[in-house]
Amino acid sequence: METLSRLVILVRDYQEALDFYCGKPGFEKFVDMKVGERRYVHVRLPSQLDVGIWLMQAEGRADRQRIGNQTAGQPVAVFYTNDLQRDYQNLSSRGEQFNVSPVKEGGAVFAHFLDLYENEFALVELPTVEGGAVPEEVGAVLCGSCLVIAGVFSSRQSVSH
């Protein structure tokens, strides 16, 4: 394996999911095609072209029961930001629902927000030093129920939950 490309989110309806993801958090749709009987819909952050969310319409009763509860109440994903307060204000002004307001803990600042199905996402600003690198002593930061593991380089290398 070399890269992570998509995170799958079960949805009730493609249009309501697109309205939410392309509206409040500001994703853009980059795949919307039908192959046979299946429709493939992917959204991504405009700043990260090679990683996205595959919105998959639930099929059958078991799938529908998992909508909004794919991770049993834990965050589905962690988004990094270099300015949590800015992003918190921007998302809040678009009507985004935060279930955890910004908290500073272990040198990081984090908040959690919900999608239209109540899937939870963490938004994290890691502490940095000059040049944008994560300080070596940070290593791992506990952000609520998320353990964010940061590389000692300028990029964030992995997230564990």
TrEMBL record:
Q: Which InterPro entries match?
A: Glyas_Bleomycin-R_OHBP_Dase, Glyas_Fos-R_dOase_dom, VOC_core
Q: Which domain of life is it from?
A: Bacteria
- Tell me where the transmembrane regions lie: none
Taking every annotated instance into account, which residue ranges of this chain make up the domain VOC? 3-126
Q: Please state the span of the N-terminal signal peptide per the UniProt entry.
A: none
Q: Which organism is it from?
A: Permianibacter aggregans
Q: Which Pfam families match?
A: Glyoxalase
Name this polypeptide is given: VOC domain-containing protein
